Structure to design on (230 residues):
């Protein structure tokens, strides 16, 4: 390799070992140095691909930080017209690390009006439902499993279904899952408050949350929210 490649190699190692949020700075450094990578060697494609992946990771970190800030302000939010797809996408961004190791995510977004709510509180609802859906799927089953998020509008309401192909919920306990402190997770793995809080947020907005499930076939949580009148 020529001198430019020798200079770039340590940068590539640094990029792989450091946090992806440094990608923009490393890319700017490369541009500043105007390194010429040997054409046809594959090295130029490798470093550009690595930089691209790291830049995408940096953008993802920024989105998560933004979404978490909104999430942290949930209790102080006034009710407003909310784009439910933006809320769901924010929850997906935050939950991605839990989802992508277990299932592929599918979206089926319909044309829906804004709902009346608070973005942070609604993000909390869908984050909890998405993480629960992921945890219902064994990690070793990846490739055969999916989580699907579908939205539709009907008679002045917006419906959001989150379906998974996980282990399902038995008939014996399905009527208790929204009860405070009830959990099916192993000791120390859950407080039993997540679904209870979701139920309280949704019903407090004039909506409903329901579940359908079959053992071995998965579950579908359905959230109904009234369309905004603002």
């Amino acid at each position: 390799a020529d001198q430019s490649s020798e200079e770039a190699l340590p940068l590539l190692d640094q990029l792989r070992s450091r946090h992806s949020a440094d990608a923009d700075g490393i890319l700017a450094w490369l541009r500043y140095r105007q390194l010429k990578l040997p054409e046809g060697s594959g090295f130029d494609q490798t470093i550009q691909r690595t930089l691209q992946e790291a830049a995408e990771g940096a953008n993802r970190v920024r989105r998560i930080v933004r979404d978490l800030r909104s999430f942290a302000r949930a209790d102080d939010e006034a009710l407003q017209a909310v784009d439910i797809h933006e809320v769901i996408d924010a929850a997906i961004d935050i939950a991605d690390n839990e989802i992508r190791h277990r299932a592929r995510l599918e979206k089926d977004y319909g044309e829906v009006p804004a709902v009346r709510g608070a973005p942070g509180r609604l993000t909390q609802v869908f984050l909890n439902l998405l993480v629960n859906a992921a945890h219902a799927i064994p990690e070793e089953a990846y490739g055969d499993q999916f989580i699907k998020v579908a939205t539709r509008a009907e008679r002045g309401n917006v419906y959001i279904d989150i379906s998974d192909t996980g282990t399902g919920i038995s008939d014996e306990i399905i009527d208790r899952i929204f009860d405070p402190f009830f959990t099916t997770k192993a000791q120390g793995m859950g407080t039993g408050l997540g679904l209870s809080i979701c139920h309280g947020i949704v019903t407090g907005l004039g909506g409903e949350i329901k579940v359908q499930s079959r053992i071995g076939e998965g579950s579908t949580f359905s959230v109904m929210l009234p369309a905004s009148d603002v």
